[in-house]
Amino acid sequence: MESPSVPHRPDPAGGCPHADNARLLARGAVAPVVLPGGVEGMAVLGHEALREFLQHPEVAKDARHFTRLREGRIPAGWPLLTFATVRGMTTADGDDHRRLRALVSRAFTPRRVEELRPWIEELTGTLLDDLERAAAEADGVAELRRHFALPLPMGVIGELLGVDPEFRDRLHHLTNQVVATDIGPAAAVAANRELVAVLAAVAAARAEHPGDDLTSALIAARDEDGDRLGQEELIGTLVLMTIAGHETTLNLVTNAVRALCGHRDQLEIVRKGDASWADVVEETLRWDAPVSYFPFRYPVRDLTVGGTVIPAGTPVLAGYSAAGRDPAAHGPDADRFDVTRPARPDAVRHLSLGHGAHYCLGAPLARLEATVALERLFDRFPALDLAVPENGLVRQASFVGNSVRTLPVRLRPRTGGVRG
């Protein structure tokens, strides 16, 4: 066990974060960490401390405030480099952030999201057919992430961005490489270069054949006025939208299915109508956040947060999975999955989709996709269960994303009622 004076080293190979989070929270709301390559940083873990930090006016997203990077002491193959250097909303501050967010926000208004509902429901039905066919070919067992939880958000974000279907599998593989924290320098550089190249090809295709999609709209903004959106910002925005637009929802749906399979009493509560599928989504976001530690923010001066000084220029991780189970905010039963948990005021609502100026722009879409997916999945397969024990599932190779690599499920009970 680490002593209180030893910085925490998030495991680059991933793993379940909750035991580490509980231990760290018992020591304080903010913890020093050592990132891959021996880079010193901090993680904000406590709910109230994280809420304060995320909206603090003297906390920046622009990597020019990252002291070690500015001084040339971060190598090109550092696995977390893309999170710092990609050009787009998540690495912009002030007027630049507002300009970039305004260009994208039109695709995520409540009205636009609700207009997508019939198409999302149709796609969900098609994917459930695919899931059933896959199970029929494998003795009743199907890999839910591959056949359902991934193609749903990838299909939706692909449609929004105008990404042709032949690009989508490759984009998922590459974005997986980008969020991996156990990747080697050469592989990290190669994955980033290929991701940029693929999205540049997508942009070129949309420039030649514009459509009613966000990429075409961004290209029009670039061509109309380069001051509104430069080429590097265009590609950076596509990188960010591709990653955030499907990885978060993929993990959210996966984690919700795991939670319900492990808590059949909670599933029964929903099926009886005593809680809604939206309640399941919100409790999953809190209890098993799809993002564990999100990079990066940088104090522009020394800041005291949660009783700990964070030096200016330090790369800081937002500890969403820890904040979601912080007993100081969510009570002594914070580690219990409970879909009937009373609605909380904004001050103690979960932070898993962010807070402040950088609150997740796609939150309404992610919630809609996950709610439709879970309701339709369990309506069609009410006895769906894990095909392997929870502790036999392999975790993602990342301390950024929080989920498992695969989710084999049995759609119906075995003959004779034996659960898989």
Shape: globular
Q: Cα distance, first to last residue?
A: 35 Å
- Number of individual domains: 1
Task: Write out the strand line-up for the largest beta sheet, numbering strands in chain order.
Answer: 1-2-8-5-3
Total DSSP helices: 18
Q: What is the helical fraction, as a range of percent?
A: 40-55%
Q: Total number of β-strand segments?
A: 10
By helix and strand content, what is the structural category? alpha+beta
The CATH architecture designation is Orthogonal Bundle
The proportion of strand residues reads 5-15%
Order of helices and strands: HEEHEHHHHHEHHHHHHHHEEEEHHHEE
Query: Gyration radius, to the nearest Å?
Result: 21 Å
Going by CATH, the homologous superfamily would be Cytochrome P450
CATH topology: Cytochrome p450
Mean pLDDT metric? 92
Q: Main beta sheet, described? A: 5 strands, mixed
Description:
- The protein is α+β, with helices and mostly antiparallel strands and 420 residues long.
- The chain has one domain (18-410): Orthogonal Bundle (Cytochrome p450), CATH 1.10.630.
- The chain is built from 18 helices and 10 strands.
- A hairpin with a 3-residue loop joins strand 1 (30-35) and strand 2 (39-44).
- It is globular.
Topology of helices and strands:
Layout lengths: L17 H10 L2 E6 L3 E6 L2 H8 L4 E2 L6 H4 L10 H5 L8 H12 L4 H6 L1 H20 L4 E3 H6 L1 H11 L3 H15 L5 H24 L5 H11 L6 H32 L1 H8 L5 H11 L5 E7 L3 E3 L2 E3 L5 E4 H5 L2 H4 L32 H18 L4 E2 L21 E3 L10
Helix pairs in contact: 7-9, 7-18, 9-13, 10-11, 10-13, 11-12, 11-13, 13-15, 13-18, 15-18
